[in-house]
Write a structure and sequence with these properties.
This protein is mainly β. It has 1 helix and 8 strands; from the N terminus they run αββββββββ.
């Protein structure tokens, strides 16, 4: 009898093991649970201005933080250091912003709009000078921010930072 009970216990334990790692079809590769929070891997989930981040450079030398003022129909991108906490001015007159989740895709040239502490000839802030109706729409934007001269380009998604 003891042998039967032990056998049943072992069988029961073996039957439970697959349940511990179960996932629904299509969930493979998707992060889940608290350990999937972007803060857990050392990467901030948003920039100091509350915007979505794009990583620039192989070693994340820079971060580009996308923000939008819907009322003013204006996008502003802040250039940050590798930690995404401090401004990191760059020698660029323009950068390119592409919003991919609108039809047709919106591409804007953002012009240097230096902050007061930026050195002469450098900027850590870029914005569009002409209003864009599409930026007036209240939605979570996603797209790409690039600095063509340095071949830096990175994706951002406002939905991932819980913008709305």
């Amino acid at each position: 009898m003891t042998m039967f009970i032990r056998g049943a216990c072992v069988l029961g334990m073996v039957a439970l093991v697959p349940l511990a790692g179960c996932s629904k079809p299509g969930d493979a590769g998707k992060p889940s649970g608290p350990s999937s929070a972007r803060q857990a891997d050392g990467h901030p989930d948003k920039g100091p201005h509350g915007g979505a981040l794009a990583e620039w450079g192989e070693k994340e030398e820079y971060h580009a933080e996308f923000t939008v003022d819907h009322k003013e129909q204006k996008a502003t991108v802040y250039i940050l250091d590798g930690s995404a906490k401090k401004a990191k001015p760059i020698e660029a007159k323009t950068i390119t912003l592409t919003i991919t989740n609108v039809k047709p895709t919106l591409t804007l040239t953002l012009e240097a709009d230096p902050q007061k502490d930026d050195p002469e000839g450098m900027s850590s802030r870029f914005s569009n000078k002409e209003k864009s109706e599409k930026l007036g729409v209240e939605m979570d934007f996603k797209g790409n921010i690039s600095w063509p001269e340095k071949m830096f380009s990175g994706e951002f998604d406002e939905k991932k930072v819980g913008h709305h």
